[in-house]
Amino acid sequence: MLEISSKTNLLEQSTYRYSLQDVEEPNLYREVYPYTDVPRIAFNHRRVPIGMPQDIWITDTSFRDGQQSVEPYTVKQIVDLYKLMSRLSGPYGIIRQTEFFVYSKKDREALQKCQELGLKFPEITTWIRASREDFKLVRDLGIRETGILVSCSDYHIFKKMKMTRKQCMEYYLQTVADAFEAGVMPRCHLEDITRADFYGFVVPFVNELMKMSKDAGIPVRIRACDTMGYGIPYPEVALPRSVPGIIYGLQHYSEVPSEMLEWHGHNDFYKAVSNATTAWLYGACGVNCSLLGIGERTGNVPLEGMVFEYASLRGSFDGMDPTVITEIADYFTHEMGYQIPPMTPFVGRSFNVTRAGIHADGLLKDEEIYNIFDTKKILNKSATVMLGKTSGLAGIAYWINENYRLSAAEAVDKRDPLVLALKEWIDQEYEGGRQTTLSVYELEEKIEELSGKRFQKL
């Protein structure tokens, strides 16, 4: 049968409807995932078309997945970060949603305090255990949408849940029916999709979800979860690891609208950002992230990274305020005691610091030579250099002013006693045979000592 596609506006053959394959033994893709060796990347040389949606956005899991991997946040910290996230999101809500736990009294208090702020973006959603009582709790809190776990690989179905595929699908569909009965929009987290039998379970299951959604008149959001970071962004990679294949397949074979399709990835193989960008390129409107990439194991997709991916793809921040990223990093460091690795792009203390002497010389002549963009304008974080044996008094004063972000009234000059004392110490270090540059932490420690704690370690 031939039909006009609403997505491509071309005459296409109607798609084959995949049925559940209720196998007796789990399909663990042992050739791809041997476990005793590094996972393998298989190619099948099949390409699917790029199809970026008209609108793309970011969603956040800092207070759910992110909070699971660090010291639990206080109510005040959650509220403060939510306000910062709203400012970063801008008037058009590019950071569309954020999700909260609702299990404990503290979780609910934080959620309600954020609700009381009356901010439009990001919309507050939840993540719950799939039970009727929790659906009612979400409804009573005035929450429109909640996430529920629907693990889809045989690793989870057979090994963790101890079910068959048929039993598992029936259980999930009943759970979604319970959400509909409570009047809550479900967001189905298809956990471990990059190890799942895509045509034998994922597509038939999502087909049933889309049918239920249509019958109930309630949308169902599909979150494709690369739980272990196995996703691959390259064209012509075979399923189940192909990010283009997963996104295209959910649209083409299960008719999931782009606005109902979201990617959630992890960074176990350094591909979190590239996989999330690929999900956008191939048709998902949403990519799920966390602040600073904090999350399970190696972390989630860093939200600040996708802010810059968005601007790179669209040519504009579309109202987002990237200077808030630096405020968020400062808040994590100073208010929460979280140590951001100094080389972390955009938020690390050394991400735009030049160490090599020849590079430092170029940076001081014209920072555009060795700075990725105008970091002062975009992130309110000036490019600077590391101090070494050739640093003069002016360079030392410049470093102190930039490192401690001193205002014009607070700034030191090259005649300041601290600058003179630090120059003398640096000279002694190199006269004693030192060859390496001085680290930020080493300098701050010495400055704290020389200044009588006038300047303390950041």
Structure characterization notes:
- With 458 residues, this protein is of the alpha/beta class.
- It is 40% helix and 11% strand.
- The protein is built from 16 helices and twelve strands.
- It has an eight-stranded parallel β-barrel with strand order 3-4-5-6-7-8-9-10, surrounded by six helices.
- Helix 3 links the parallel strand 4 and strand 5.
- The radius of gyration is 26 Å and the shape is elongated.
Topology (SSEs and partners):
Elements: E1 2-4, E2 11-13, E3 57-60, H1 62-66, H2 75-89, E4 95-101, H3 105-116, E5 123-127, H4 132-140, E6 145-149, H5 154-160, H6 165-182, E7 185-190, H7 198-216, E8 221-226, H8 243-252, E9 261-265, H9 272-281, E10 286-289, H10 303-314, H11 323-335, E11 353-354, H12 357-365, H13 375-379, E12 384-385, H14 393-403, H15 417-431, H16 440-450
Helix pairs in contact: 2-3, 2-11, 4-6, 6-7, 14-15
Largest sheet: 8 strands, parallel, barrel
Question: What is the overall number of helices?
Answer: 16
Shape: elongated
Contiguous uncertain segments of 5+ residues: none
Span from first to last CA? 67 Å
Strand fraction band? 5-15%
Kindly report the spatial arrangement of strands forming the biggest sheet. 3-4-5-6-7-8-9-10
Order of helices and strands: EEEHHEHEHEHHEHEHEHEHHEHHEHHH
Mean pLDDT: 93
Structural class, from helix and strand content?
alpha/beta
Query: Rounded to an integer, what's the Rg over CA atoms?
Result: 26 Å
In short:
This protein has 458 residues and is an alpha/beta fold. Helices cover 40% and strands 11% of the residues.
